[in-house]
Specification:
- By secondary structure, the protein is an alpha/beta fold.
- The chain has one domain: NAD(P)-binding Rossmann-like Domain (Rossmann fold, 3-Layer(aba) Sandwich).
- It is built from 9 helices and 7 strands.
- A 7-stranded parallel β-sheet has the order 3-2-1-4-5-6-7, sandwiched between helices.
- The two termini are 30 Å apart.
- It binds coenzyme A.
- Coenzyme A binds next to helix 4 and helix 6.
Length: 267
């Protein structure tokens, strides 16, 4: 991993709560926040995964874990109260818990569609709603993790497209409602990020991977650090006038025509 471009101690003493923090992009953000000096609580459903992730984070600084399902409001309210009791008011909230599996619309049950809607949309709402009373206002910052599916319709992703569009509208609505209290709310929209469960499910095999890389203007997958650096920017004092933004970090994947020209040329 390359060196962070941010100064040491950027988040010294800040308190952060991250859902879906046991793995992938969210764990990458947690690691960057811990290294920057924050007290980080990660949340997940699987206790074993959570404990292993916390252990790894503690090698770099202050970290704890709390198991709860983002779909259960009371469980999230308790998890957030526990974080406040442990570390004080919360400066940073990252809502990253998400569900995904590739399936055609007629290949998923109503319950399968509901699962992803509930994890992504209801889970983000529950976490934000329950966190608001614990946020250090003004100065607190919320990041919701979105996806290109929020605005790029994709086959096999009806549930995720609907859910992430909902997450982004939550971001923009809460940015309006909470701006007066001094709380900023933004989305990060990660493109294809290497070594994540999402990409293992959506781009399995070297062939798909190479084709996808060939279609990306920047010619490579993103890294967890690419996303973590953007998260550090968003929660830092460099971004105090940024709210309601959907910050795309995707190597140009979502640009109109991205990859089409290369494919037409047979490259
Ligand atoms: N195709 C079709 N349906 C699927 C499926 C698939 N690949 N995987 C799960 N489902 C269905 C289940 O069959 C079930 O529907 P049913 O009750 O009608 O049979 C429904 O989804 C819920 O599954 P369940 O096992 O009860 O688990 P859950 O509600 O806790 O969550 C997932 C299921 C798949 C949404 C969740 O475990 C998940 O997304 N895990 C991966 C996390 C991930 O990759 N995160 C990164 C996101 S980019």
């Amino acid at each position: 991993m390359t060196q962070s471009v941010f100064r040491d101690g950027l988040l010294a003493g800040k308190v952060a709560f991250i859902t879906g923090g046991s793995s992938g992009i969210n764990l990458g953000i947690a690691e960057a926040f811990v290294k920057a000096g924050a007290h980080v609580t990660i949340n997940g459903r699987n206790v074993e995964k959570l404990e292993a992730a916390v252990k790894g984070l503690q090698a770099h600084g202050s970290a704890r874990g709390v198991a709860a399902d983002v779909r259960q409001y009371d469980a999230m309210a308790q998890a957030l109260q526990g974080t406040r009791d442990a570390h004080g008011e919360i400066d940073i909230l990252v809502c990253g818990a998400a569900g995904n599996f590739p399936a055609p619309a007629v290949g998923m049950s109503s319950n399968a569609f509901r699962s992803v809607m509930e994890i992504d949309v209801l889970g983000t709402f529950n976490t934000c709603r329950a966190a608001f009373e614990h946020l250090r206002k003004p100065g607190a910052s919320v990041i919701n993790i979105s996806a290109p599916q929020a605005y790029l319709p994709m086959a096999l992703q009806a549930h995720v497209c609907a859910a992430k569009a909902g997450v982004d509208m939550l971001t923009r609505t809460l940015a309006i409602e909470w701006g007066g209290a001094g709380v900023r709310v933004n989305s990060i929209v990660p493109g294809p990020i290497d070594d994540t469960e999402g990409m293992r499910r959506l781009a399995p095999g070297d062939d798909v991977r190479e084709k996808l890389i060939g279609s990306l203007p920047l010619g490579r997958f993103g890294t967890k650090q690419d996303i973590a650096q953007l998260a550090l920017f968003l929660v830092s004092d460099a971004a105090t006038y940024v709210t309601g933004s959907l910050m795309v970090c995707d190597g140009g994947q979502s640009l109109l025509g991205s990859g089409l020209m290369l494919r037409a040329m047979g490259v």
